Amino acid sequence: MTSDTPTRARVLVVDDAATVRMYHNSLLGEAGFEVSEAANGLEAVEAALGTPFDLYVVDVNMPKMNGYACVEALRSETVGTAAPIVMISTEDRPGDADRAYRAGANLYLVKPVAGDRLVRVATMLTADRSWAAEKDVAA
Amino acid sequence: MGLVRKQAPQEPEEALPEGPSAEILLSRLDDPDPDRRRESALGLVGAPEAVPAMLARVGVEEDPRVLESMLTTLAAYDTEDVAGGLAVHLASDEAGLRTAVAAALATMPRSFPAVLPSLLAAPDHDVRVMTAMILADLQHPEAHTWLVRMICQDPHPNVVTGAIDALLPSATTDDVQLLLDARERFPDDPFLRFTVNAALPRLTGTP
């Protein structure tokens, strides 16, 4: 049985900088998303194992587990999320975006990301959540 | 006469098993088994002759656990040679390497100041962002002053924002003008503006 009531898309913001988490939480929260936070890749993976999210916003340089490793873990069989993943970083060397896509990210943005752009991207990526239904059916 | 506790017969002291020499441990850093490499890296504490070889391995070691052990051993020396040898990896393309090295440098308060000037002058602004991250965790009485200097002088908004983020846990009312000046210097950076605006109420004690 499914409900006709649309649920708010759930976003996990993963960044070791508290102010970045606060910033993204504020932007996405005001835009109607349900936002949770993780301070590093390990926390993100633990959170994803407990709660399925509709979108992940992941930093690159983090202690304990960096962003690329985090995305690989999220895409691994253990977590197995098919939800979109946006990586956001100050790193904009040639190859950084390629590395993100190889890890499994859907989009790579370079900081600073304008607030309205982040909201637009999040809205676009969570508009069609059919992948979640497919996963539920598969499970 | 008081009772005299009878002493247990003394056992002959058992000789501690002697561990492998630094030379053997160094050769094991190339062992295909990562557990063996990790044990060797940890066993090389107190073997300064092994430092150059370990520094040379930092950039090529692929197992994160081995790398972490090697960095733990190297950071314990806290010398300028080690700090310099590690700092070059802050510009690495490998996120795991540069963040692990940053974490190690943050535990080297005696020697990190020696490499700080070159890091603050690094042409790659990402290296300077990593430097701010290190200063956030470095237990050094001048760390706050260095972050203030970064906020005042660095031309890149990401570096200034990183330095502000690093400064905030230790920021006081005295830093309010510094933050206001940074916000004025980069009026078009939304994240920097948000960071300053979010910090001001706490620092000034006003809602």
Automatic annotation (TrEMBL), chain A:
Keywords: Phosphoprotein
The keyword Protein biosynthesis is assigned to this record: no
Keyword Phosphoprotein attached: yes
Domain Response regulatory: 10-126
Organism taxonomic ancestry: Bacteria, Bacillati, Actinomycetota, Actinomycetes, Micromonosporales
This protein's name: Two-component system chemotaxis response regulator CheY
Entries under CDD domains matching the protein: REC (cd00156)
GO biological process: phosphorelay signal transduction system
Residues where 4-aspartylphosphate is found: D59
InterPro entries assigned: Bact_response_regulator (IPR050595), CheY-like_superfamily (IPR011006), Sig_transdc_resp-reg_receiver (IPR001789)
SUPFAM superfamilies: CheY-like
Automatic annotation (TrEMBL), chain B:
A Pfam match: HEAT_2
Domain of life, per lineage: Bacteria
Ranges of compositional bias, category Basic and acidic residues: 28-37
Coiled coil: none
Region forming the signal peptide: none
Region named Disordered: 1-37
Protein name per the record: HEAT repeat protein
Protein's organism: Actinoplanes xinjiangensis
